[in-house]
Design brief:
The chain is mainly alpha-helical and 72 residues long. It is built from 5 helices and no strands.
Length: 72
């Protein structure tokens, strides 16, 4: 995703992921992660100057994580 985002003129500050993500790239397994897993993970990789966080909706429960992340 980093390459595609950069090609679309987004400045990518971080494309970090957890080792547990690398262990399973099967979307059906990743989709089992809870919203709490997402909201706990995102602050560990987000930079202070970030304007946007990309959460892949088909693999993570991204939409359910948006509001809790905005409140942080």
């Amino acid at each position: 995703m980093k390459q595609f985002s950069a090609e679309a003129a987004f400045e990518v500050l971080s494309a970090d992921g957890g080792s547990w993500m690398q262990d399973s790239m099967n979307p059906s397994e990743i989709e089992q992660e809870t919203v709490l897993t997402i909201t706990d993970f995102v602050p560990t990789v987000v930079k202070d100057q970030v304007g946007t966080i990309f959460l892949p909706g088909m693999a993570w429960r991204g939409l359910d994580a948006v509001e809790p992340l905005e409140q942080q």
